[in-house]
Amino acid sequence: MSLKEFNVLVGPNNAGKSTIISAFRILSEGIRKALARKSEFLELPNQSTWGYRVSLIDLPVATENVFYNYDDKESAIV
Fold first, then answer.
1. What residues contact 56, with CB distance under 8 A and at least 6 apart?
2. DSSP assignment letter at 71
3. What is the pLDDT of residues 6-61, one digit of tens each?
4. d(C-alpha 50, C-alpha 43), whole Å
5. Is residue 2 scored above 80 in pLDDT?
6. What's the first-to-final CA gap in the chain, in angstroms?
7. Which of 30, 21, 22, 19 is nearest to 3 (CA)?
């Protein structure tokens, strides 16, 4: 997805417009939290890499609709 300085998001009701906006809010807050700390070496299921571990609990955004693979019992890895 390519974004410009000004973007318009349109679509029918229940198409996911608010979900996209919420995703950008979560991403923005996650980046802000991550940049306030040092990166760490992360052991992920299929790879190991340097990154930032940010819990959704630490983010001041509504996360009631955040789930992975339609299963909210397992945390998503982004």
1. 26, 63, 66, 75
2. B
3. 999 999 988 888 888 888 888 888 888 888 989 999 998 889 999 988 877 777 77
4. 9
5. yes
6. 16
7. 21
Q: Which residue has the tokens 């819990």?
A: 55
C-alpha–C-alpha distance, residues 7 and 73, integer Å: 34
Q: How far apart are CA 78 and CA 49, in angstroms?
A: 12
Task: Quote the tokens at residue 9.
Answer: 């998001």
Residue 62, burial from CB neighbour count under 10 angstroms (0-12, 13-18, 19+)? exposed
Sequence length of the chain is: 78
